[in-house]
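Q: For a teaching handout, I want to show students what a protein-ligand complex looks like in token form. Below are the inputs, and the small molecule is adenosine-5'-triphosphate. Please produce the holo structure.
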Amino acid sequence: MNKVDSPQVTKRKTRLSSYTPNAIESATTTIKLQPLTLRDLVFGEEEPLTYDDLISSLPGRRNQIFELVRLLGPVDSPVSPIFVYGGASTGKTSTILQVFRHLNRPFVYSSCRTCYNARQLFENILNQLLLHRKSEINGYSSAKKCEKQADFVNLLKEALVGVVDSLKGNSGKSSGGSFNGSMVYLIFDSLELVRDWDKSSTILPFLFKLHDILKVPDVEDALRQILMRNQPNPKLYSAFLDLVLKPFCRVTRKLDELSAGLSPLFKKFCEPLDDLEVNPVGENKRKLLNCLQPHIAPAINEILRVTTMSSQVNMKKKKSGASDSIDEIEFHMSTSAKYLVISAFLASRNPATLDASFFDSTGGPANQKKKRKSSEKSKELKEALEEEQFMKGPGTFPLERLLAIFQCITSGSEYPLEEEDEEEEEEEDKSLMSDILLQVSSLCSANFISKGGSCPLEGSTRYRSTISEDLALKVAKSLKFPLAKYLYRK
Ligand SMILES: Nc1ncnc2c1ncn2[C@@H]1O[C@H](COP(=O)(O)OP(=O)(O)OP(=O)(O)O)[C@@H](O)[C@H]1O
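A: Here is the structure, written as tokens, with adenosine-5'-triphosphate included.
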């Protein structure tokens, strides 16, 4: 590691300390000392990087840095969503975070690797915007409970307005120093992982549309004017739009979709009326709303279904692409490589402290009954681990742990590597262990396992499984390996 890299790693940790698993304890200490401030919305506490330092901190990324800075534009200028993609560990995250450090602009960073469901992702973003950190004091609870997209939009708007006002009020100054602009950028890392946990396939299109959805108040007036054109009963239609335009605009701003969705709903709205030229106000308007209410949600759902249909088709295509590759695994991946994939998955998913309880001396799953008998203490341990696992997401592990799990699950006579006679099996075992590093390296290249930076304390490289539970279960099924028995469940 060269001299430029070392400070970079330290500084990145400072900015992201509240999201990285290892920093939970130090984060707790920090809360007691200092509440979060607006200054925590910019990268770290150190001085911003100069452009030259930025370029030299990321060799080979000059063009990408230049392009990113260009796309982000001058301070406080509107920016369309930017999608950054590229091979694993090619510096996407580092480049983006370092660019923000250089620009010294406020941002919120959430990784879909550590936030592995919609609720965690939404709450993580809101926590940062509301300068809220989970801690012992607040019982590790989030600032807001939020699971649904519609709730998230409302809470996000509220939080953004608050932050932007504060940023403006601070005129870029805070106790920790200055920062540029009064705009907050939302950065989503490892977005591709959303496909693994969002079975409804609505989160990705939603996130890509978030930029538009948040602009709703600006465009609502324009949409209203367009929709009002040629309406025979403008007062009635205007009253109707008062009730429905806002919730509909959260789902789509496309005129064709809006007109198609609003038209049948307007008919329902008119049903109880004898006189269509009426201007419903007060009690009358409330009565009409009550009649309309049961029809609003289904109509919005229908629009949502239509707007996400095309994305779903794309997703399905991608998914079928993925299942093709799963089928390919059936044919092209060796038995030992499959076991390695499963071992890595278990190492990432299960807390290391529970390894002993999952594997007995013969490599089989440990006796579950024995585990259940073990009293209050193990219950507490389980709860603590559950919390820990929840905070961490898929964990990293050293090579030794991977090999230990691999050995355990392959040495059990119940699940032999191949159906061979004993002598051949021994030979196979030897050659397996000798080329295992090669196989791990191949799995890293194929992106089944990702290789993280080395831990400065341990000095050894750490790995992480990148596959979803679905894929792990499919690989396990092909080996007739009972993966579920080895998985730590909440
Ligand atoms: N061009 C580069 N210069 C210096 N360090 C780099 C460069 N590219 C990657 N790295 C280092 O490699 C490691 C992985 O980088 P990073 O996490 O930014 O990659 P990524 O593309 O975001 O990875 P992933 O695909 O897993 O999301 C980091 O330690 C980072 O500092």
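A: Two things your students might notice: The longest strand covers residues 449-454. Residues 5, 58-61, 86, 88-94, 190, 450, 453 surround adenosine-5'-triphosphate (CB under 6 Å).
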